[in-house]
Amino acid sequence: MNITILWLLSLPTKPYRVLEYFFYTFVFLHFSLIAQTIAPLLRKSSTPRSSTLSPPFSVIVCAHNEVENLKKLMPLLLAQQYVHFEIIIVLDRCTDGSVAFMQSVNSAQVLTIEVPAVPSGFNPKKYALTQGINAARNEWLLLTDADCRPVSDQWIASFAPYTSEKTELILGISPYEDQPGLISQITAYETLQTAIHYTSAACQGRAYMGVGRNIAYRKSTFHKTGGFHPFEAVVGGDDDLLVQKITTPHNTAINFKSDSLTYSSPERKWKGYLKQKTRHLSVGKHYQPAVKTAHFIRASTHGVLWLCFLYLLFSFQYSSRIIVLFGLLILVKGVFFKKIANNLGMPFNRIWFPLMDLIYAIFLPLLGVRAMFVKNIRWKK
């Protein structure tokens, strides 16, 4: 008790000096969290558990009025250099010529499933995925989206070595293409942060999400764990909520191989970007308590750090050591994030980095709060 009282009395009395104490505290907390996150990735090897496995795969793609994307994707899927695989295209209530295009694809490897309507109580994306999974002839399922592009004809082959007897889930990485513009830079940085956090957690045996644009799991595991129940009506969650259901500390692998990447084009308009992010962030309310707590601690520490720095900076109540310390923190983060981005095959712009880190710390959490209250969120109309 006496020690606590002495400590409180020793605190500075001026408000900005108290805030400076908070600033130093949150610099330490944020740096500690960053170090804990990136350390497993710096140690992680991209060498799979086995290099001789080659089980058959069922590649599943769901599409809703995406005929132009399918025209670009199908040649890349059919060109995959792998021993045994099938391609399942699930057309969700398509009215744009997707059905006619898929009928023109002449390949015994391709199975097209048409979904004319979605039953009540089911999200369209999850219902379409379920139809594709049920129709799959192979145990291993590999999923991507119609607007994605495998970076290599070894995409399927890159997942095969990770399919050991104990493995039930393989997490892939799916960057967005590096394009000019603020929205593209925000998307690229947020995607890099997301990839860093979910792959780091998986390396530590605590996987909590993947990306539906590049993920593989066993058909038997999907059915054994009840598929998308009880969140079949939730918009989104076909990747992160499913991962939280089926992952264990020992059944999940991460595919870091450069041939495994799938790229997507970022949204180019603010309306589309906000709609996409709201849909993604709205799923967070359904996360497991431990995952939500970890997200809250990381986001609040990051956000408070930036707010303290900006307040001290623009109120001119600061010392040079504050700017030096914060600048050093940003520099160190930038160096390590650049290294990890290179290892993951993801874009990273050093010039944009400080601004992107500020936006990620303050703007995206505000979008997350907004997503908690927005109703009528849809996958696609």
From TrEMBL:
It is found in: Cell membrane. It comes from the Bacteria. SUPFAM superfamilies: Nucleotide-diphospho-sugar transferases (SSF53448). GO terms for molecular function: glycosyltransferase activity. The chain crosses the membrane at residues 21-42, 304-331, 351-373. Keywords: Cell membrane, Glycosyltransferase, Membrane, Transferase, Transmembrane, Transmembrane helix. Its EC number is 2.4.-.-. This is Glycosyltransferase. It comes from Marinoscillum luteum.
